Amino acid sequence: MIAADLAVTALDLADAVQARAAEEFVAGRADGTPFHRPAWLNAIERATGNRALMLAAVAPSGQIRGLLPLTHMKSRLFGQALVSSGFAVDGGIVTDDPRAAAALGAAAQDLARERGVASIELRGGPAPSGEWTLHEGSHLGFSRPIAADDEAELLAVPRKHRAELRKALANPALHVKVGRTDALIRDHYRVYAESVRNLGTPVFPAKLFRQVLEQFGEDADILAIYEGERPVSAVLTLYHGGRAMPFWGGGIADARRLRSNELMYYRLMGHGRARGMAIFDFGRSKTGSGQAAWKKSFGFDPVPLAYHSWSASGERRDINPNSPAYQRRVELWKKLPLPVANLIGPLIARGLG
User: Fold this and answer.
1) What is the pTM for the complete model shown?
2) Do 142-303 and 2-139+306-349 fall under one CATH topology?
3) What are the two backbone dihedrals, phi and then psi, of residue 152, each rounded to the nearest 5 degrees?
């Protein structure tokens, strides 16, 4: 695919030189995210079996002018799609050159046709030119600067939520652990699996969390809150471009009583500050959801997110748990015994992305 003096090519992420060039391009851009990195695509592929693809718009000099990371999602239940990026809340084309955006979008369409894939989903980034549909209003993003110190951070939390947080801070039984140890990884998965089961959502394979930690190295870690020896809240966080990005987090049923989720994110803000992060990126939530309301009550203002899609048939795959088609299944899932949910959940979740 050619666009004036730009050529679009598929990078070989198994080639260390090409993967490093892509990593450096993403690291050098303000609009680059962890979900644009080869590290993310490789982690997804190795943990879930969904193929990692990276399209690059390249100048005659060999300089990368734009990237489009893609995950080829395959599921018997949910169909196929090329997603940028799979299992992520962001992605899409990363470039400031409209020609590169157009060329990458067209190349993605060609790739979809070659692979027999009906649709493409871009979670952020500029709109490619051509037959792409803009989707706005379904999701909100939440981020704000990390305060200068713990006291300023506490005061940045609105009064009602701050009172809840103070209760957790005053609880001598609650304490925090941060790191990348096997014990923390196990405890995180135990807490996260219970949390998503209670929401009616299948849990991702445990291998996914291990692969993300392995691929990202020091750019990812786990913070967990314990009541004595019992893990009650835990979150896996990514660090990129001065942003702390809590990504997979949750709490057990007792977390609400203990206010341990409030404590977890407050301590994570301090941990992010100590790591030199300037922004706390709380990620996305569905518009009108309880999760969105909770983040707003924590002092984060919502910003509408824009996605783009293309489909050969005009239809998108439906993976929205709020869809009427899934409501009965969600309610049934909430009632499953946790061992059963953890056994069959990963088989389903690896196709959601």
Assistant:
1) 0.91
2) yes
3) -65, -35
